[in-house]
Design brief:
By secondary structure, this protein is an alpha/beta fold. The protein has seven helices and 41 strands. The radius of gyration is 22 Å and the shape is globular. The chain starts with a strand and ends with a strand.
């Protein structure tokens, strides 16, 4: 059986972290989201994968190549313009001749999700799950184990069972998708809704894990889930006087200097310089080429590649993107915050700060809980920042 992974979209609500990468390539637990999907398929013996790519497709294709590193064979289909999931699915029509699995590439799943779907042996099946935010998805109505209606992103509450975007489909589905696209229906759920009287869609529930990031602060929740470390694996150098408790991974070429305290699960990539006297608490992931200066505290955060953090920093539940330069005395606490994304405002508990790539932050800067700093921004010495800053903002 083949699998089709839809990975062409951008993920605009996750900006600034999708400025120079598609959502599927955001690193969670130091792995791209899409890698979890590929590995879940491979674990179930599905080794023929077609990836539909579009937005910044080179980032995906250069990382996954032909799939041999992941034990699968990957081919690609291009969606030149991001015109919706139904349009994206049609890009693989010539490559699919039998029943297949279709998966959204921007959700973290485990092998059990695919296993449960494979138990359905024929026809059309949709994996569904309960959601605390059903208004962001397609809400499904189920009768006698079958999907009888789908309401895409409803304005009012109609239920909390949602479509995960994971299907088992027959090749005949492409005829429905083509007719739907020609009629101006951009999403797969829109097409399925219009065809509902003629289709018999089985609703499949799973005991596995399905998790999606809709907004920037959701990345911390995914990062917490992604940690499945056990024991300690240290390919780098651990100086005397370092305390490590629980599962900790340290990549090749990294050095953890004396006096550091690390409580796992924590993942530290390759070529990093940590400390001395740095404290890192669960569930923190640190990418490659990161420098963390002495007396810095990091808790439950995502620090991506080639980031430099000055001494005496305090960072809680933050996401700091590639190439950021942060000077001494930086403070980014977490707490209850009102956060703006596009034209919407959200009340977020335990919100940390979100800092876009290649941002430079001067000494003694304070980011209030829930602050979003756009990519390539400049924040001057001693500034106190709150709210949402657009890309290339300058704060003096």
């Amino acid at each position: 059986m083949k699998a089709v992974i839809l990975a062409a979209g951008e993920g605009t609500r996750l900006r600034p972290f999708t400025v120079s990468r598609p959502k599927v390539m955001i690193p969670i637990g130091n792995r791209p989201i899409l890698e979890y999907v590929v590995r879940a398929l491979a674990a179930n013996g599905i080794t023929e994968i077609v990836l539909v790519v579009g937005y910044m497709k080179e980032r995906i294709m250069s990382f996954f190549g032909n799939g041999s590193h992941f034990g699968v064979r990957i081919s690609y289909a291009i969606q030149e313009k991001q015109l919706g999931t139904a349009h994206a699915a049609l890009a693989v029509r010539d490559q699919i001749k039998e029943d297949f699995i279709m998966v959204a590439g921007d959700n973290i799943i485990d092998a059990q999700v695919i296993s449960d779907l494979l138990k359905h042996k024929g026809g059309l099946a949709m994996l569904v799950t309960d959601s605390e935010m059903p208004s962001k998805y397609g809400v499904v109505q189920i009768e006698s184990g079958r999907v009888v209606d789908i309401v895409e992103k409803p304005d009012k509450k109609v239920g909390n069972i949602i479509n995960t975007g994971i299907y088992r489909l027959p090749p005949s589905i492409f005829d429905h998708l083509e007719k739907g696209v020609m009629a101006g229906k951009s999403g797969i759920t829109h097409v399925l809704h219009s065809c509902m009287p003629r289709l018999k869609i089985e609703a499949v529930r799973s005991t596995g894990r399905w998790m999606d990031a809709v907004y920037p602060w959701d990345l911390i929740r995914l990062n917490e889930y992604a940690f499945n470390l056990s024991g300690q694996e240290t390919s780098g150098t651990i100086e005397s006087g370092v305390t490590m408790r629980g599962p900790v991974f340290v990549g090749a070429g990294s050095r953890i200097r004396a006096g550091c305290y690390i409580e796992g699960p924590v993942s530290i990539g390759e070529g990093c310089e940590i400390g001395p006297y740095v404290t890192i608490f669960p569930t923190t992931s640190i990418g490659n080429g990161v420098h963390v200066a002495p007396y810095t505290y990091i808790n439950n955060s995502m620090i991506m590649n080639n980031v430099s953090i000055g001494s005496h920093a305090h960072i809680s539940r933050a996401v700091i993107d590639d190439g950021c330069r942060i000077m001494t005395g930086f403070s980014a606490p977490s707490g209850l915050a009102q956060v703006r994304v596009e034209d919407d405002f959200f009340k977020v508990e335990k919100a940390g700060s979100m800092v876009g790539e290649f941002t430079q932050i001067g000494p003694k800067v304070v980011l209030s809980a829930g602050t979003i700093v756009g990519a390539n921004s400049r924040v001057g010495d001693g500034a106190k920042v709150s709210g949402t800053l657009e890309d290339r903002s300058i704060v003096v």
